[in-house]
Amino acid sequence: MSIDALAFGAHPDDAELGCGGLLLKLKALGYRTGVIDLTEAELSTNGDPPTRQKETEQATELLKLDIRKNLKLTDCNITNDLESRMKVIDIVRQYRPSLAIIPYKADRHPDHENSYKLLKDSFFAAGLKKLKTEFPEYRPKAVICYMLNYGFQPSFIVDISDYHEQKMKACNAFKSQLYRQPGLDQPTYINSKFFQDYVTGRDKCYGLKIRVEHAEPYYIEDDISIDDPVSFFKYL
Question: Which helix (DSSP H) or strand (DSSP E) does residue 199 occupy?
């Protein structure tokens, strides 16, 4: 099975928060989509792996993904070592995504930053013919980064107005992370009453920049080709 767009997240819920709208839009356009979670988020302040697994299954259904897998790397200790790279390489070679979507390189959570480097190095190595694995060599055609906590100057912005509501339903599937139960859960950055306002506000902010209701920002290190600038910028 080949996947057109494959998103990677350090933890279950990262892809939902960072690129859930894009995944839904691409699915609606007829592309095959998937998510690879690097860890089970076993060290999360609230919840536990079985709870997170049930939440992930619900979010996967809401995002209408074709595949979702967990590489079971160690939470809060994502390391760019050979064993970890080989796990990513096998996934890339097996599913052969045209587009890989990964966390931005700078973030408040070390796992997000470390996963960026691990993934970029793994994608390059996956294209090496002399590196033999079960599957033949393959390298994603494009790698783009989604925004989580730290901002960046986007390379481009995607209109997700028709998909924002469904995106937030997928995010809210992770109730153990985003909803605080007084007296039971410990307060965290993401179960603050302000966090969901931040996610929605960010989507509205970037929507305003391209004259739509909701949008998601993305960063790419490669140059972008525009054949017809007159037509391309008509949205302005």
Answer: helix 195-209
Residue with tokens 């979507």: 101
The residue behind tokens 């996934």 is 91
Give every CB contact of residue 148 below 8 A, 6+ residues apart in sequence: 14, 17, 18, 103, 104, 107, 109, 112
> Per residue of the chain (236 residues), what is the pLDDT tens digit?
899 999 999 999 999 999 999 999 999 999 999 999 999 999 988 888 999 999 999 999 999 999 999 999 999 999 999 999 999 999 999 999 999 999 999 999 999 999 999 999 999 999 999 999 999 999 999 999 999 999 999 999 999 999 999 999 999 999 998 877 776 678 898 888 889 899 999 999 999 999 999 999 999 999 999 999 999 999 88
pTM of the model: 0.95
How far apart are the two ends of the chain, measured CA to CA in Å? Answer: 39
Say how far apart CA 65 and CA 31 lie, in whole Å. 10
Assign domain 5-235 to a CATH class: alpha beta
What is the rounded distance in angstroms from the CA atom of residue 16 to the CA atom of residue 23? 9
Radius of gyration of the chain measured on its C-alpha atoms:
17
Domain ranges of the chain: 5-235
Q: How far apart are CA 125 and CA 137, in angstroms?
A: 9
Q: Provide the token pair at 44.
A: 């999360």
